[in-house]
Specification:
By secondary structure, the protein is mainly alpha-helical. The chain has helices at residues 2-38, 44-82.
Length: 83
């Protein structure tokens, strides 16, 4: 029973961490997109950095979505097990 309680508290923490990660990644994508939109043709290095940040943000968002989905499924299994 003690192990189940530890897992139950870990799953909501994982859900919250994933949501926070999605918010941070979304902000990164927004910032990078704004930088690219404001960018000038003559500032190639700055544009490349913004493009890299954009791709990183997209990938981080996707990873957090997968972590959230996995945690959500775990919570569902735990609730089904305890019911």
């Amino acid at each position: 029973m003690g192990c189940v309680m530890q897992i139950n508290s870990a799953v909501p923490n994982a859900l919250n961490t994933s949501l926070q990660g999605m918010q941070r990644s979304s902000q990164q994508v927004t910032t990078a997109s704004e930088t690219i939109a404001r960018g000038s043709v003559g500032n190639g290095a700055h544009n490349v950095e913004a493009l890299v940040a954009l791709v990183e943000g997209e990938q981080a968002y996707g990873a957090n979505v997968k972590a959230f989905a996995t945690s959500s499924r775990m919570l569902g299994v735990l609730l089904d097990t305890e019911a």
